[in-house]
Design a protein that fits this description.
The chain is an alpha+beta fold. It has ten helices and 23 strands. It has a ten-stranded mixed sheet, with helices on both faces. The protein has a six-stranded mixed sheet with strand order 14-15-13-12-16-17. Strands 3-4-2-1-5 form a five-stranded mixed sheet, with helices on one face. The longest helix has 13 residues, at about 75-90.
């Protein structure tokens, strides 16, 4: 018969007062915290897990009665419990005290876990601050009670390319893209545009960036000079995301990276480091400043990136763009 211990509810915790019982519980997975006198203090999540395992009774409450009591007094109890339970079943020692720390074996396998529900929105700024200079694992609980783990950290992408300002290229803008007959070295040296037959075709984003850098002079089919700001204003009518896309594109280019459309991958950009002949390490999705998103959006982006062996970057189009690298992990 499985050994069962007894606890009482006190100050928002479950306390096991018997020193011997407390020691036995704590020895299995480092559960709970010892307090004065050798008693063991358990969070409601820890206690509910032990009750489900048949190892603890709490003041003669049934599972349903304790669950009702705990849910009323613990924020996101259900989500935290499902994450805690999953980690314990995977062999982790789990500390559930404000945040969740999971440890398995050596120190390199220590994780700080953030439990969330799939339907809860998140803000870019909140996650950026949460991860700090390290890494957090976000445990996302879906509607079926299953879990998906995402590693999220700040990213600072850089590349070796330098823009050569001595170029002076004439571009005819055709409404959605530019066309250049004599395009110097901007394609060969900077991988701008695509050569079709003997001409260079540039996207509207590339036209704007190069005009701002003084590399190109843009005119319409009637010979009227076009400014970058004029093109942006016009493009925003048909593409509400254009302004934030140009901000992220410009920042990535300024960082020495090669940026191409990510349309075929279902995102805004694919990004190369040295040339376009080698693997593009990033897929980048641009979001507005003060962005509030949903976890299904993240799931789609990460799955697409994972399928083509790339890292998914969520890029905030603020005055000084910020980047989060997100990938699915198996603990």
């Amino acid at each position: 018969m499985r050994e069962s211990f007894t606890g009482i509810i006190s100050d928002g915790r479950v306390i096991v007062r018997d020193v011997v019982e407390a020691g036995k519980i704590h020895s299995k997975g480092q559960t709970g915290e010892f307090i004065k006198g050798g008693a063991l203090s358990l969070t409601f999540v820890e206690a509910f897990y032990l009750m489900n395992e048949g190892k603890l009774t709490v003041e003669n409450l049934t599972l349903s009665e304790f669950l009702r009591y705990a849910v009323e007094r613990t924020h996101d109890f259900e989500v935290r419990y499902l994450v805690y339970r999953d980690l314990r079943k995977r062999g982790f020692m789990v500390r559930e005290n404000g945040h969740i720390k999971a440890v398995r074996g050596v120190e390199e396998n220590e994780y700080l876990i953030v439990p969330v529900y799939e339907r809860v929105t998140f803000s870019f700024d909140d996650i950026f601050e949460k991860v700090g200079d390290g890494k957090r694992i976000f445990a996302v609980v879906d509607g079926d009670g299953d879990l998906t783990y995402y590693s999220i950290e700040r990213e600072d992408p850089w590349g070796p390319l330098k823009l050569r300002s001595e170029e002076n290229v004439y571009v005819m803008f055709l409404g959605e893209m530019g066309f250049a007959e004599d395009f110097g070295g901007i394609h060969k040296k900077g991988f701008y545009g695509k050569i079709i037959e003997k001409n260079l075709h540039l996207s509207a984003i590339e036209c704007v960036y190069l005009e701002r850098k003084g590399i190109t002079e843009i005119k319409d089919v009637g010979g009227k000079t076009r400014s970058a700001e004029g093109i942006i204003k016009e493009m925003c009518v048909s593409d509400p995301e254009f302004e934030r896309k140009i901000r992220i594109y410009s920042d990535l280019r300024d960082r020495g990276l090669i940026v191409k459309t990510g349309f075929k991958y279902g995102t805004h950009f694919r990004v190369y480091v040295r040339d376009i002949e080698h693997h593009a390490p990033y897929l980048v999705h641009a979001v507005p400043e003060n962005y509030v998103g949903t976890w299904p959006e993240i799931s789609r982006g990460v799955r697409l990136a994972h399928g083509v062996k790339k890292n998914f970057l969520l890029a905030e189009a603020s005055e000084k763009p910020r980047y989060l690298k997100i990938k699915r992990v198996r603990l």
